[in-house]
Amino acid sequence: MGTVRTDEFRRDAVRIALTSGLSRRQDADDLWVGMSTLNKWVMGFCRFRGHRVRFA
Q1: Distance in angstroms (rounded) separating the CA atoms of residues 52 and 3
Q2: Under the phi-then-psi rule, with left for phi > 0, alpha for psi from -120 to 50, and beta for the rest, what region is 7?
Q3: CB within 8 A of 34, min separation 6: which ones?
Q4: Sorted alphabetically, which Gene3D superfamilies does this protein's record hold (predicted)?
Q5: Is-contact 38 28, C-beta < 8 A?
Q6: Among 13, 43, 51, 53, which residue's CB has the most CB atoms within a 10 Å radius?
């Protein structure tokens, strides 16, 4: 079974991914999560908030 991440970690990861100015790949590597996982978190957040998703 994979590592369980807290909701707080996920929220922080999404905030970093949307504001860091780095590529999504670099953010995922820095956070030690898979890029597809980070993308899912970002998409979920953006859908919840009604934002458009930008993939870098």
Answers
A1: 28
A2: alpha
A3: 28
A4: Homeodomain-like (1.10.10.60)
A5: yes
A6: 13
Structure tokens at 23: 């590529």
Alpha carbon distance 17, 49 (integer Å): 15
Helices 35-49, 7-19: axis angle to 10 degrees equals 90
Is 30:21 a contact under the CB 8 Å cutoff? no
Q: Whole-angstrom Cα distance, residue 3 to residue 17? A: 19
33 φ/ψ angles, rounded to the nearest 5 degrees: -130, 160
